[in-house]
Every structure is written in structure tokens, then in C-alpha cells.
Amino acid sequence: MKKLAHVILLALICLLIMPVSFAVAEEFQDTSEDEFLDDEYEDEFQDHFHHRFPRPIVTAIDYHTRNIYLFNYKRDKVVIINPVTIEGWPGDVPLQHTMIMPRGNRLYVTTDNTADHPAYIAALKIKRINWGGGTAEMVVDRLLQVEAPGAPAELPFVEPVNDVQATPDWILRSSAQTHGPTILPHSNFIYFTEWTSDRVRVINRRTNEFAEVDPIIIPGYTEQTHGVMFNKSGTIGLGSGYFFDNSVIDRYKVNRKNGQLEAVSQIMLGTEEEHAAFSHYVFWLDDRYALTATMQLDKTSLTPSTTKAIIPPSVWMIDAWEGTATKIINHTDNADGAGVFRSATDIAVVGHKLYIAEEDSIDPTFADDGYISVFDISDRYNPIFIKRFKPGEELPQGFAVAHTLSPTPDGRYIMMASWVTGYVIKIDTMTDTVAKVFGPDDGLVMPHGLFAAGSIR
Predict the structure, then answer these.
(1) What is d(CA 429, CA 412) in angstroms, rounded to the nearest whole number?
(2) Half-sphere exposure at residue 383, Cβ-oriented, CA atoms within 13 angstroms
């Protein structure tokens, strides 16, 4: 009788569980052309659940057309939205970065300021996406002003001192720019950085209001920061120095309850005499170790007199507990070399493979080419070169400036954007081949600011 009762109890449990399981499976099959996106769940369990099962969406903006892009990397579809058609949009403003929540129904877009418009962080609600029809319905939930109209960029003066390292105009912009969107795990907070000044902006994603600690300004730390990137436990943040002769990674202790950042130390990429500089992103491997890569080629007018040499583009392993950095990949001077060839603008790790976006953007000639290199980092301190994606081979003919990498949360694909030549390329990480090319034929002109639903940066 006890055995029979046990069998009956198991059967009843299965009957109760099966409808829930079927409902979950149906919700995430994503087979309809019209996809209605319901409100974000607010409790901690649901947030965790949808972080594990995000929608297959990657977002970006276009520098030239000022459109917003939604890419479906499972269906190989793209939807292009003119933001002026969005209810509540402030006007024809230049766009900069995007961030999308895991469930795919909340989108943040940063804008530059103009003489007539402030710089904004726009919080959008996506109500519906029609992938087949190429349309989407969204509204502005909140406009958060980050800088006044006409406020200038606060960038250090810099100029070339040799014929190796240029200081191109695309970096020395005059408008205020908001970059580096990131999500703090296990919290209500999302972060943006006013790269052209010294402010870290903190938003409570539940209310879409600035947090009580906003803005965070830490002299000597937050200037020209391109995002504060957090480990998975949300306890340590690392800020990248995205400017000439910035040779440190800023290390912060994080308060997940109120979003405050506390400066701990700065991690030098090298020594006072020889160091690497100009890092765009940080990629965390686990709660302790992270990678960064550098772009600067040689000295500028900002280089300290005590510096004997700038270490050319390279990759560095950061021990965030000890506050140290070790160079693990050197520079190479040819496209077949086992090192970093062009300026390393972004990095991503899937499994035991490191992908590096290499762009030709800050030497005396601009955008001659661009590459994606791949390394085996099974032994983290001794990477092994695997291959380099090249223009006219795996990459389209004429491709240049591989700028941003965004891995999909399942690790199956990496999306890469070139804002210079108008491509977003999907790479299959199982085969290290190009699986799909979105480009000018799809309406892309200058795509920038890739962000995959389910990622935290």
C-alpha cells in the first residue's frame, strides 16, 4: 500500500508539473512572426529565470541614420526602427549605445547632446516585434537627462608626437557622450558612463529613475571610463580607461543595496617605465579573473616623461583579488602572426576560446582593414593562436574596423559590429566560421553599440 501511495503521489506531481513545463516551453519557442512582449517580472526568481532563458535579441544603433536595430540571431532577421516614430521620442538626436533586458521588452538607448537637445538615457518599452514584417512597436517610458544642450566634451588635450600613433578626430568629439552600459548582478541597478567627462550614471531599473548615489564622481578614477564591468556575483567592478595614455584599470568595491562604487585601487597594465594603454572593455572569466586588451600603439603628448615605451596592442589577465595584471598575448606585426595585430578594441570568451576584435582606427591611416583573432586559453596564462578572420576571406571584401563583440548568452554565437563598413557579423563559435552577414543590403549603414539580451555588458 505504501508503494502504491508513493506511485500515485508521483503521478499527481507529474500531472501538476507538466502543464507548467509545457507553458514554459511554448513561451520560449519563439515561432510566431508577431511577438508580444509582456511586462518584466519583478520578483527575484523570475529575473533569474529569464536571465537563464533570454530572448534571442541583440540591439544596436546607427551613427549615420540614427536608427535603432533589433537583430534576431536565431532567425537571422533584423528590424530597423526610426526612433522619431516612437511615442515620446525627443527629436532627431544622435545615438550612441544600447542596452536590452533579458526578456527583450525593455530597451535603453543613450544619445549625444546637441546645441538644441540634452544628452539622454532613453528608457523604452518594446510592446511587439514582427520579425517577418520588419516592424516593432515601442514607447518611451522615461527620458533621463545626463547633460545639458551644448555642454562640451571634457577630454584632455592630446596631439601626436611621432608618425606611429595618431590622435584622430573620431575620438576627440565635441559633444557629450554616454557609453558603457552594464548591469549589476543581483541588484536593481544599471550603469552608464559619461565617457566625455567623469560621471558614472546609476539607474534603478525598477523605477527608471536615477539612483540616490547618482552621479558617482571619483577624481582620478572615473574620467574617460568606458563602462564599469562587474563580476557575476556583483561584488567587484572594473572600469576601463578609454583614452590615450590611460594605462590603468580602476578597481571598485560594489554595494549592491544602493549601487554605490568605492574606489579600491588602480591596476597598472605594465610598469611606470613600460605600459600598455587605451582599454575599451573588460571581460570577466569568473569572480576573480578578467581580461582586458589595449589599443594604443606608441607615445602621445600625454605620455609621461618617465615612460620609456608604450607596449603596443596586447591582452592582459587581471587578478581582481590581488589587484595585478599580467600580459598574456603580445603584439604581432603581421596578419598571420600569433599575437594582436591591430588595436584590440574588444574581447569575448566562449568556453576555452578568446575572440579579439582588432580595428585599424588610431594609426596615421584610418580603416584600411580589420580582423577577428581567436586564441585557445585553456591555459589562461599561455594562450595558443588558432586563427584570424580576414577581410576578403571569412569577412566581406573591404571590411574594416572590427569594433564590438557581443556573445549570445548560450555561447553559440558571437555578434561583431563594424560601424565603419556597416556590417554586423554572426560567428558560429562551434566551427569558428561566419554564419550570417548583416550589412548594407539589409539597410545597415554605421551600426554601433551591440548588446545581447541576457548579457550584463
Answers:
(1) 6
(2) 27
Reported residue count of the chain is 457
| β partners of residue 452 | 58
Q: Sheet harboring 209-210: ordered strands across?
A: 178-183, 189-194, 199-204, 209-210
**pLDDT per residue over 269-317, tens digit each?**
999 999 999 999 999 999 999 999 999 999 999 999 999 999 999 999 9
Overall average pLDDT of the 86-109 stretch: 96
Cell matching residue 179: 557609453
Q: What are the beta bridge partners of residue 384?
A: 376
C-alpha cell at 172: 576627440
DSSP 33: S
Taking residues 358-378, report their average pLDDT. Answer: 97
Question: What confidence tens digit (pLDDT) does each residue in 160-177 have?
Answer: 999 999 999 999 989 999
CA distance 223 to 230: 18
Cell 526612433, residue located: 83
Task: Give the pLDDT band (50/70/90) at residue 4.
Answer: low
| Distances in whole angstroms, Cα of residue 446 to Cα of each of 15, 144, 161, 207 | 52, 25, 31, 32
**Distance, CA of 295 to CA of 304 (rounded, Å):** 18
